[in-house]
Amino acid sequence: MGSFHSWYASLMNRQRALLSRVTYKAGRAGAIAVGGALLLASCSSHPATPTTTTSTTSTTTTVAPSTTTTAAAAPPCSTAVLRLAEDSAKSTAGAGSAYVAYTLTNTGPTPCSLNGFPTVTFFGPSGASGAGAGPKLSITTEHSGAAPSLVTVDAGAAGAFYLVVSDVPTNGVGCATVASIEVTPPGSTEALSAPSSLDPCGPSVGVTAIEPLASLST
């Protein structure tokens, strides 16, 4: 009976030892498996290297061209389309001076321009007929009044100027008798002729710049 208990006790000891080795191996294998799983999880959860994408947007701005409209000036008036005449309605006198008005009418179909002082030449009476037929008088001219400006003369309209003459003899010098005048418009080399009834006293006559007939005043 004693030997049976000894054998049984020995058998139980061997079983417990075997079970302990199996449990140890299983635990070790599980630990290895768990460690591997943790290592894989660590590798898989490692943050990926961020990728930076740069987007470039090209913007094209179209600027509309600036348009400036400038009205072209009318061409200079040619003597071929101008008619010279004395305008008694605009003429006036006073305080020893007379302002005799002359007009340059545009007889052409389109506007033209005048800008400046006209050049005036004086002629005396003659037995021959026609303006400019008499002798040329030694009367000089002096610019008078405001500075000139561009005057646009529409078809049928007129630019005008004054001849400013003294009607009082000075220093014993008598007054001349003018039968006609020649007028060269500014910017031109050709003259226009017209009869005249001037009696200027003194050696010179004042000439104003051309301006629109409607604004002509003393």
Could you please describe the fold and organization of this structure?
The chain is α+β, with helices and mostly antiparallel strands. It folds into two domains: 1-43; 82-215, Immunoglobulin-like. Helices cover 20% and strands 31% of the residues. The chain is built from one helix and eleven strands, in the order H-E-E-E-E-E-E-E-E-E-E-E. Strands 1, 2, 5, 7, 10 and 11 form a six-stranded mixed sheet that branches. The protein has a three-stranded antiparallel sheet with strand order 4-8-9, with no helix packed on it. A two-stranded antiparallel sheet has the order 3-6. The protein is rod-shaped, with a radius of gyration of 59 Å.
Number of strands: 11
* Helical proportion, percent range: 10-25%
Order of helices and strands: HEEEEEEEEEEE
User: What is the residue-mean pLDDT, rounded to a whole number?
Assistant: 78
Shape: rod-shaped
Total domains, how many?
A: 2
Specify the number of helices: 1
Radius of gyration: 59 Å
Strand content: 25-35%
Class based on secondary structure composition and strand pairing: alpha+beta
CATH architecture field of the largest domain? Sandwich
pLDDT < 50 stretches: 22-26, 29-48, 65-69
- Major sheet size, sense and barrel closure: 6 strands, mixed
How far from one another are the termini?
A: 167 Å
